[in-house]
Design brief:
This protein is of the alpha/beta class. It contains ten helices and 16 strands. The strands form three sheets. It has a seven-stranded mixed sheet, sandwiched between helices. A five-stranded mixed sheet has the order 4-5-6-7-8. A hairpin with a 2-residue loop joins strand 15 and strand 16. Helix 8 crosses helix 10.
Amino acid sequence: MEIRLEGTGGPEGWPVPGCPCASCGRLAPGHRRPASVLIDGRVRLMDARSPDGYLIRHTADGCEVTGPGGGRLLYAVGPATGSAGRDAGAPFDVLLMDLPDRPERLGDLRRRGRVTPATRIVAVHLDHRVPAESELVRRLGFWGATAVPDGTVVHTASADTASAEAEPWVRPRRTLLLGGSRSGKSEEAELRLAADPEVTYVATGPSGGDDPAWLARVRTHRERRPAHWRTVETTDLVPVLSGGSGTFLVDGIGTWLAAVFDECAAWPDGAPAADHRAALARVAERCDALMAAWRGTRARVVAVSDEVGLGVIPATPAGRLFRDALGRLNQALARESEDVALVVSGRVVPLPL
């Protein structure tokens, strides 16, 4: 099938006419026209008619089109409109998807084998939900997708060839994301892995007990994560990192280190100096073990940590001790990471070597 993307923008295009937002203000009028897809010059997606030779089904995954030659297209835009089960169906040659909406849908399609490395993935319905075209390209790189200009033609018959000739979807094995409180670092970590088929979210923080504020924060994190992700609550990160392949999001290193201080009784509390030195030595051993596992992991890991060196000097000995220990650990992790970035007010600043 020949798939002509006459328009790749949202329902009102991008920029949205009359919209005062920064995203729309960065673009010239008509940059991306409202989404419109024409197949073989005769089938317009979302029309009621289905010409002879074309099978069009509206399923829970989107609008599925099979052409006369067997080419398969999925147009995944908007809410589910059909009742077909989410586990049925063969892979697609081309996927047109509203990725700014819910990129985790792509991860679910990959998990179920409906999207494979041979599927060409093109983002559509692009609009001011994304701050800028440059940010769109950055996100799509994490998700193994592309954006194309209005008027681009894609062929299902050449999807395998195009996929083979395209740049391979290569991503760093170890990523460290640093940031202050409410900087957006956890959201950035989740965004990077949103389109992965299998992700284990490793929560190192406390359960929250009876603290309403902490429980609300944990609930917000949980509700933000894709439903098909697995969650593990542990501070024993060494076996997680050493356990083989997989994709892990560790959130975060700061809460892990605080838990290690608790477990090693290493907070300054008036104990004899020799006992405190022994406790700090146990903390150092745990950090060394973590570093060895981080350096040797065969998994793909995105870890979140607090950048603690930009604020005022902590007023308490415990605060200064923790700040220094986490700063040293962040440096060690960064040295053994292929990708390190600082998140400030939701903006991502790469930290190259």
